[in-house]
Amino acid sequence: MKYIGVDLHTTQLTICYRDELGAENISTVKISQIEEFLKQINHTDKVAFEATGNSLYLQNMLQTVMPLENIYVVNTLQFKLISKSVKKTDKNDARLLAEYLSKDMLPEARLRSESDNQIINLIETRDMLVSSNTAFKNQIHNILLKLGIKLKSSEVSGKKKRRNLVERYELAGVYKFQVEFALSNIEHNYAEIAKL
Questions:
Q1: How far out from the chain centre does Cα 70 lie?
Q2: Under DSSP, is residue 55 helix (H, G, I), strand (E, B) or coil?
Q3: Is 30 helix (H, G, I), strand (E, B) or coil?
Q4: For residue 63, what are the CA distances in angstroms to 28, 55, 60, 161?
Q5: CA 132, 133, 134, 138 torsion: positive or negative?
Q6: End-to-end Cα spacing for the chain
Q7: Rounded to an integer, what is the distance from CA 72 to the centroid of its chain?
């Protein structure tokens, strides 16, 4: 059995293979060549890596060659506290992960399921669209304030009142373009929110 510590990045893996006697071997593999890494894993090995943006990808790949109970996703913040005294390099991180894994001393994180990730992504997308609409509405208020026009909130919140805003205030030139641009984006964002 090997204890394998992986320092995971978006483009590469730095891997420390540690045997039961403590002997170590370190290598680096590009993410695009992850199959080479997977070929070196036995189903009895244990693998540890920190929770990052692409942790679920690595976990899914590892599950093709080993059982889930041998895959350890480490709580990044707690692990940083543990490994604070060591110079932070990819090799040192991989080495520490392998060492702490061999001693069963890693603070594990909980990875979300794929369906949980998708729900969270939808919520984040909705939040982004709502924030974008708020920014566009504020832009409209600011443009009209430059022209001495103080809008009521309902004039940009309500769909009917937004429709004829340009004509109602007889906007022209750059101001007309900016307000029309903001209004079209607001409508587009609301349509996308409705799809969610």
A1: 24
A2: helix
A3: strand
A4: 20, 12, 5, 55
A5: positive
A6: 47
A7: 19
**Position 22, amino acid:** G
CATH number of 3-102: 3.30.420.40
Six-digit token string for 74 = 């480490």
Joined together, the tokens standing for residue 118 give 């998708």
C-alpha 36/C-alpha 47 separation (Å) is 15
Chain segment 73-82, per-residue pLDDT in tens: 998 888 775 5
How confident is the model over 154-173, as a mean pLDDT? 89
- pLDDT, tens only, 45-93: 999 999 888 998 999 999 999 998 999 999 888 877 556 666 788 999 9
CA–CA distance, 66 with 110 (Å, rounded to integer): 19
Who's near 54: CB < 8 A, 6+ residues apart?
Answer: 8, 10, 31
CB of 111 within 8 A of CB of 55? yes
Using DSSP, state whether 15 is helix, strand or coil. Answer: strand
**Residue for token digits 């909980």?**
110
| Across 14-37, average pLDDT | 95
Please state, in angstroms and rounded to a whole number, the distance separating the CA atoms of residues 83 and 65.
29
Annotate 48-63 with b (16+ C-beta within 10 A) or e (fewer): bbbbbeebbebbeebe
Query: What are the residue boundaries of the structural domains of the chain, listed by start?
Result: 3-102, 114-195
Q: Write down how long the chain is.
A: 196
